[in-house]
Automatic annotation (TrEMBL):
Keywords: DNA-binding, Transcription, Transcription regulation. Residues 15-76 form the HTH asnC-type domain. GO terms for cellular component: cytosol. This is HTH asnC-type domain-containing protein. InterPro entries: AsnC-type_HTH_dom (IPR000485), Dimeric_a/b-barrel (IPR011008), Tscrpt_reg_AsnC-like (IPR019888), Tscrpt_reg_AsnC/Lrp_C (IPR019887), WH-like_DNA-bd_sf (IPR036388), WH_DNA-bd_sf (IPR036390). The keyword Hydrolase does not apply. It comes from the Bacteria. GO terms for biological process: response to amino acid. Pfam families: AsnC_trans_reg, HTH_24. SUPFAM superfamilies: Dimeric alpha+beta barrel, Winged helix' DNA-binding domain. One of its GO terms (molecular function) is sequence-specific DNA binding.
Amino acid sequence: MTERTAKAARRARVLDDIDLRLLRALWMDGRARVRVLARDLALADSAVSVRLRRLREQGVLAGVHAEVDPAVLGLTTQALVMIRLSPNTDSRAYEERLRTMRSVLGAVALVGDFDLEVHLACRDMADLERSVTALRDAGAESTHTQLIARTVAGLGQALLTEEEPA
């Protein structure tokens, strides 16, 4: 078991039903006020505040983030680009380069046939082509691009259920 896996297992043991309900409520509305969370959980405001502080300190609650719809910004063409890095490309340097690219929404490092999967949001097909070219020029040996037809919303909440995963 890796150190990261061991830490995750320890975190899982410290979460009780109330913690899970609190995390689910934040997942649904990250801007929920402590008073509203307390009312919904039938707890005192101070009890919710203590739990939130503990969850942050333990690294369980890593943050609450705003989700911006790229289409509102005129970025209506989205794609996933699988990237195989050139042998002489440093993966950390490539990841730093991704942080400077306006069209990059996110990326995950992979183990397998490809090194990275990059999520792009672009204005149109010409912008997508320029973005993929920039990914290649930054040190990709090859790319495989798939257009996103639609995003499936509301996933991830099952992580916070009490049942064992299937």
